[in-house]
Structures are given as C-alpha cells and as structure tokens.
Amino acid sequence: MAYILSLDTSTKVCSVAVHHQGELIGAQTYHLQKSHSNLLPVIIKELVKNCELELKDISAVALAAGPGSYTGLRIGTATVKGLCFALECPMIALDSLESMSAQVRRFAAPEELLCPMIDARRMEVYGRVEDISGNIIWPTAPIIVDESTFDEFSGKPLVMFGNGAEKLKELFAHADQTIRIIEGIHPQAAYMGEAAWIKFSAEQFEDLAYFEPDYLKEYRTNTPSQKFKV
C-alpha cells in the first residue's frame, strides 16, 4: 500500500496531491502569487486528512524539482526534505515539465510532438520537446526563442503549452510549421502520480543531504539603480 505525497511549487501555482500506486486520491491547487510558504503546511495537513490518511501512512514524497521559480523551488525542496526526514521516507524528484506533458498526452494526437514551457522572462523559456510516448527529443534546457528556433520540426505538428508558450502566441501566429498553442496548462501535483510511482517502484530516490533543485541556470540579481540605493 504505497501512498505518495506530491508537491509542485515550481511556478505561481501551488499544488499538492496524494496518489495510491499512481492513482490520484486527492489534490489541492491554488493560483496565488507568493503564497507557497504560507499555504504548503496547511494544505498538506488538510489534504492528507481529507484522504482519510495520516502523515505516517505516506510511503514517499515527490517534488517537482525544477526548472521553475528559484524561490518556489527552494520552498518546495525545504518542505519535502523536512517531511522526508521527519517521516523517514524517501524523496522522489521529477522534472517540473513532466506534469504538464502528462496533462496534454491525454488528448494530443499520436503524431504530435509535445513542447511544455515555463516562462524564464523576456524571450527565454525552460522547455523540452518529446513525442506522445514521452521519448525526449530535446532535453529540458533554457531556450531563447525566435521565429527559427523550431525550424528542425518543420512539417511536424508541434504542440506548445505552459505559461512560456502562451507568451509566444504572436511570435508563431504566422509560422510556416504547424504549431498549436494550448492555454491554461500549468505544472500540477495531480499529474505527477504515474511518474512518481515508476520511480518509487524502481527505488530511484534522492539523497536528502545533497539534493538541490534543478535551476538550470545560476541565480542572478539585478544591481539596483542609483536612485534606489541608500
């Protein structure tokens, strides 16, 4: 009886889910900016209780480990590490883009290529390209997007989704290749169950002491302008 608690804090969407051997039991999702640190402890407790479980029943905790928001990933990582230490259970790390692909695979056509994207500001996204079976064609990486970025897929139907794709609608409005952009797809813990169960079954766990989120690029802060210096 393996119950896996999953958390995703990689974007402004904060979500928690409980799966039993890959099957969803319950989930909570909040689209609230900068609220992860306040929400997580409360919704974890509520969700586990509403699933008629106790925290001691959890067999593992899965985390959307990046890419995504630096702050969100740090909050999620700290929360999961604390839970795993306290419960003496293993930690599972998943690519943050995986839960978006899991949503779209349910209705995408067999010939379509999937391109989940998370906004990385300006014309940069965190993205990857895979086929409908989940075989990776472009691995997850920071991508600076222009009109020619996806030319190698010309003639192939490409489905883009996530908040990184939504900001590219105008860029690809008149593209030669077949590009479809789906709005309203976000990383969500409810769709982490199958991938988490596969890793749990294979005992692909993380080292709690040394694990770090997959930021993909170094954290940078802007130097304040002169008028804001004190």
From TrEMBL:
One GO biological process from the UniProt record?
tRNA threonylcarbamoyladenosine modification
Cellular component per GO?
Answer: cytosol
- What's the domain of life for this entry? Bacteria
Residue ranges of the Gcp-like domain? 33-128
Please give the CDD domains that the UniProt record associates with this protein.
Answer: ASKHA_NBD_TsaB (cd24032)
**Protein name, per record:** tRNA threonylcarbamoyladenosine biosynthesis protein TsaB
Look up and give the organism this protein is from.
Marinoscillum furvescens DSM 4134
